[in-house]
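We emphasize that the prediction below concerns an isolated chain of 579 residues; any contacts that depend on oligomerization or on bound cofactors are therefore not represented. The input was used exactly as deposited, without trimming of termini.
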Amino acid sequence: MWGVILGILTLWLTIRGWRMGGPAQRVGGMIDGVCNNVQAGKRRLLLVDAPLRSWFGRLPRLQIALLGCLSGYLLVLSLVSIVYKTWVTPVKGYTDVYNTRTGIGGFADRVGALAYALTPLTVLLAQRESILSLVTGIPYQHFSFLHKWLGRIIFAQSFLHTLGWTLVETWLYQPQPKVYTDFLKQQYAVWGCIAMLFITFLTVFSTQWAIKRTGYEFFKWTHWIIAILYIAACWGHWAKLACWMIPSLALIFIDQGVRMLRLLALHTGVVKGGSLGFRPANAEVRMIGEGDDIVTRIDFQFEHMEAWQPGQHFFLCFPALSIWSSHPFTTASLPDPQSNVQHHTYLLRVRKGQTSQLAAVAQSKGTIDTIMTGPYGFGFPRYDTQNVLLVAGRTGVTFTHPIAFAAIRQLIIPQAIVDFVWVIRRAQDLLWLPNEMAELKAMLADDVSLRIKIFVTRESTAHLAPCCDVKPVSGKAKVIESEKLSSQSSSSTVSELTSGAILQALLAIDQPRFSVDFMPDEHPSMQAVVEDFTERAATRGGDVQILGSGPESMGSDLRAAVAVIRTSEEVHFYWDSRE
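Result of the prediction step, given as a token string:
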């Protein structure tokens, strides 16, 4: 089994390294053509959402196909070469009782050994400092589905192993109950029962039902601690298979150790007084919006040598709220490669738990110490970017906004296009990133490749009548047509204006490649957005890269639209989950 796993990873790394070798080595070659055809077929067949959404959630068919292949492979390995016969043998010292020997014992041992052998793979799939990401180029968070379901497979294997030997020791072996009581007194059997309790706890308390009732922090820390105890119990149960438990423990501690080193590398430096110490970032916290449409914006300056790439994220911890929890947030700001002091901006949707506590901090104190770990994930756009479509829903704009600037700066074909689409509930949501959106909008005057579309889904133009001249267009959508504002209103000085003036400046239709569509009680068609973009890209030529972030329902619609694209050019798609 591990020969197959390592063989696949080796082949994957070889092909990936060869294709990254440069155009001279790969363009037009047979391997390159095969890889492109495989990518196109995978996109058409496996990108759309898989069935059984109530079981698996909104996931592409590719994830379910991988799980199916793994499950089928394990099923074959669990059943092949087992001797399916029954033997009745006498019991020494008895004349009226007999042992019944079957293939159950061999099968139970087989699935138990497979559960042991799968443990290191399950740990690899859960790592934040992921070795698999380095080999495959896939961000670590996209392995969480396989980690969760592989854990459930291990639970099923452990249950069958326990059930098989329970049947043997309580029913097939005689005399009873002496055989079973003697069996339970043995140390390896006690450790086996303890391991079964631990894997049951891990399985039950990793379900969405349990996480909602106990909280994410409880899940995170109990999952980590109980996983270590489970591995230790497995080691105690059958030490001859410690060859799987030792690397599992080593991978866990290596991952945690690297996380700690990265945290110290960011926050350890010279503090006041000239001594070496730990220095958190002091962040400004502001609450923006009202009702059910509130976000918390976090801004701070921090000196660190390693800048991030657009699209990457940091894990943020707020010691004043809880030192035991950190959460991933995409950085909405663009790093400055010429400076050691970087500006960080984050948007957090206010829900229950820690985000509501941050909103309270914004209303009272207004600042909070922040500890970062990262950056994580991969940067975008690709180095050979040609045509880029960026689609964001609500706070997913923190992922797409910095990528838009990076894409414009590194376009290798002057006539290539960059489409920026942002779907929000209300027009006032533009005030989450007022300066940033004003700067992006100002680039329309100089860069003909850029186009910006804003969709407002829970508001009609009537709400903005006092400050904007509203004219309806065909269909349910409406577009604001306001008088052109002065260039000062679109510049970085927008922060000095009132909220109403800022919003009016952001909504002003002062460029032909900027639109604001109001679609109350309706969502924009991702199919129409993608088709419009691909038609324009086809007239310019070049590869297509489509990136998105936002609600999972939007991700499903976008995947379905990308899957049916018909083009001879390469299509690269990435969805950054916000759920």
